[in-house]
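Translate structure to sequence.
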C-alpha cells in the first residue's frame, strides 16, 4: 500500500485539515456554482474524501450518492456534512467498481480520485481511461473531472506521463 493510501485509510483528520487549506480563495466553489446547474439534481460523487468538494453544491441538490474506497474518509465526510445527512447516501466503493453500480445521475463529479486509478493501472492504463469515460458518460449527462495540472507551476502541466494520457 502506498503512503498516499495509508493517509486515506488512517489520517482523515489531518487530510481534512490539508485539503481545507488548499483553495483558500474558494475558486473551485466559485467555478462550480457559476458553471454547473445543481438545483434539484441527483449527483454521484466518486472519491468523496472528507466532503470538501461536496460542500460546494450540497445545499442545492436533491440527493448525493457518495463513494470512496476508504471507510475512514467516509466517516469524516459524515461528520463534515452532517447537516445534510438526509440528502447523502454513502457507500464504500473503489472506482474500479463503477461498472457494477446501477445508479444513474444527473451529474457525476470526482475530485482528484480517478487520476489515482489511472496511475495504478500500469499496463491496462488505456483500458482504464476508456472505462472511466464510458462508465461516467453513460450514467450522467454532466461529468466533472477535477484533477491537478501541477502544483506551484505558472502554466498547466500534467504531473507525469501517466496522467497526461488521462488528461
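Result:
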Amino acid at each position: 500500500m502506498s503512503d498516499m493510501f495509508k493517509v486515506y485509510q488512517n489520517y482523515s483528520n489531518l487530510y481534512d485539515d490539508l485539503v481545507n487549506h488548499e483553495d483558500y480563495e474558494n475558486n473551485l466553489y466559485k467555478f462550480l456554482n457559476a458553471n454547473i446547474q445543481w438545483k434539484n439534481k441527483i449527483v454521484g460523487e466518486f472519491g468523496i474524501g472528507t466532503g470538501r468538494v461536496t460542500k460546494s453544491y450540497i445545499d442545492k441538490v436533491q440527493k448525493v450518492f457518495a463513494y470512496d474506497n476508504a471507510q475512514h474518509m467516509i466517516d469524516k465526510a459524515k461528520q463534515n456534512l452532517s447537516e445534510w445527512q438526509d440528502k447523502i447516501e454513502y457507500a464504500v466503493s473503489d472506482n474500479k467498481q463503477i461498472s457494477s453500480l446501477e445508479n444513474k445521475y444527473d451529474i457525476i463529479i470526482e475530485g482528484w480520485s480517478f487520476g489515482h486509478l489511472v496511475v495504478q493501472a500500469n499496463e491496462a492504463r488505456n483500458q482504464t481511461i476508456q472505462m472511466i469515460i464510458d462508465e461516467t458518460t453513460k450514467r450522467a449527462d454532466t461529468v466533472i473531472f477535477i484533477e491537478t495540472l501541477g502544483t506551484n507551476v505558472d502554466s498547466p502541466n500534467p504531473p507525469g506521463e501517466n496522467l497526461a494520457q488521462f488528461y
